[in-house]
Design brief:
405 residues; alpha/beta; Alkaline Phosphatase, subunit A; Immunoglobulin-like; binds zinc ion
Length: 405
């Protein structure tokens, strides 16, 4: 069937897809000042049963840290900016000229809106009624790219009702819901009020996920991240702000179509890694962020590039591609029944061919290949998701892998 073979070649050997993620929306929830020992760090999940169920469905980082200032006015902007940004005081005309703060570095809102050319209504920040801290005045970003601040009500429940409205009316592709009550009740010194506010926040996170999954604009194409700005002293739940483990160890829960299911990740991560990860999923860059994409949370799926309608016997099969994430050497094990040499091609997520095996490579038929993470010029490639593709004359098979340097 020469015609069919030719057709398949054209389809198969084209570039890899530009964006391999299913995620179209990201919802970020910040629960202020929830100590990990009352959250998902409690093996009984006494106050957080809904988040524990979501952690089973998605991924949890065992060692997620606030690696900077363990108080809200610095840690929240660090979540936004993917870096420990300075905050600068100014007289805010949006708040009657009263003193407010803005972040020096651009934020994830600005990167999202500028990078993807999205309107304000596509980027919403819900929080209780106050004069919200503002994103940056960076000359490349700034107020034209700030989020739509929806600052309403007094309690977390009020913020949730507002958020629910936003979801059903504006359906933004990027949404941040900020819940303040846990920190507030912690400072009150009333243990029961503190733990009750944790149960409420947990309930609201569960409700949020259920609402998203019942909404056609979000179901199956939304990643939710739930984190904290800081914890609380391990020696006194009423306060926070120092270097103790209770203040530093916080939560990062991720759930969504591109997030591994049931993963408990042992890769240590910190607050600045959140914004670049959101950028990776939605397809924008975060140039001034210092954090890195949490690639280890993402699904490695086997993409069969070739799924012919006509059932031809497969000439090529990928058996194992490992380890992933890999650091210095990736091993690719395959079976080939074809008569021509198997070619190895590596693409980045933009679809650019970064490496291909040379035909003279002798080991190509023996069912096992290695790739050292270097490009064709023998230079080290950066950490990231790559697509490994094997092809022969009839078909190509590919798989996403993660390189972590
Ligand atoms: Zn506080
Ligand atoms: Zn502390």
């Amino acid at each position: 069937m020469p015609f069919l073979t030719g057709l398949l070649l054209v389809v198969l050997l084209g570039p890899a897809p530009a964006n391999a993620y299913e995620t179209e929306n990201v919802v970020l929830v910040i629960i202020d000042g929830l100590r990990y020992s009352e959250g998902l760090g409690d093996p009984e999940h006494t106050f957080v049963p809904r988040m524990a169920a979501l952690a089973d469905e998605g991924a949890l980082i065992n060692d997620f840290q606030n690696d900077g200032y363990t108080y809200t006015s610095r840690a929240i902007p660090a979540i936004w900016c993917g870096a420990w940004t300075e905050t600068i005081s100014f007289s805010d005309p949006d708040c009657g000229g009263s003193s407010n703060k803005y972040a020096e570095l651009p934020s994830v809102f600005e990167y999202f809106r500028q990078g993807l050319e999205r309107p304000e209504s596509d980027c919403v920040y819900t929080l209780k009624a106050l004069c919200p801290w503002k994103a940056s005045f960076d000359s490349n970003y700034g107020p034209d790219y700030w989020p739509l601040y929806h600052s309403v009500g007094v309690t977390d429940l009020d913020v949730w009702h507002e958020t629910e409205q936003i979801i059903s009316t504006l359906a933004p592709h990027f949404l941040l819901m900020y819940l303040a009550d846990v920190d507030h009740e912690g400072h009150s010194g009333d243990w029961d009020a503190y733990t009750e506010s944790i149960s409420t926040a947990d309930f609201l996170v569960g409700e949020l996920w259920d609402v998203l999954q019942a909404d056609s604009a979000y179901a199956g194409k939304t990643t939710m991240l739930v984190t904290n700005d800081h914890g609380r002293h391990d020696y006194d739940f009423r306060g926070h702000g120092d270097d103790c483990e209770g203040c530093r160890h916080i939560q990062l829960l991720a759930v969504g179509p591109d997030i591994q299911s049931g993963l408990q990740s042992d890769v240590s991560r910190t607050i600045p890694d959140i914004a670049p990860t959101i950028g990776e999923l939605l397809g924008f860059t975060t140039p001034q962020a210092t954090g890195e994409v949490m690639l280890e949370l993402l699904v490695e799926e086997t993409v069969s590039v070739n799924e012919p309608r006509v059932q031809a016997p497969a000439s090529l099969r990928l058996n194992q591609v490992y380890p992933t994430p890999f650091n210095s050497e990736l091993r690719i094990e395959f079976e080939s029944t074809g008569r021509v040499p198997v070619a190895l091609s590596i693409f980045n997520l933009d679809g650019t061919l970064v490496y291909e095996s040379r035909p003279s490579t002798g080991s190509i038929q023996n069912g096992s290949l290695r790739w050292d993470g270097r490009d064709r010029a023998n230079k080290n490639l950066p950490s990231g998701v790559y697509i490994v593709q094997l092809s022969d004359a009839q078909m190509a098979v590919s798989q996403k892998v993660i390189m972590l340097k």
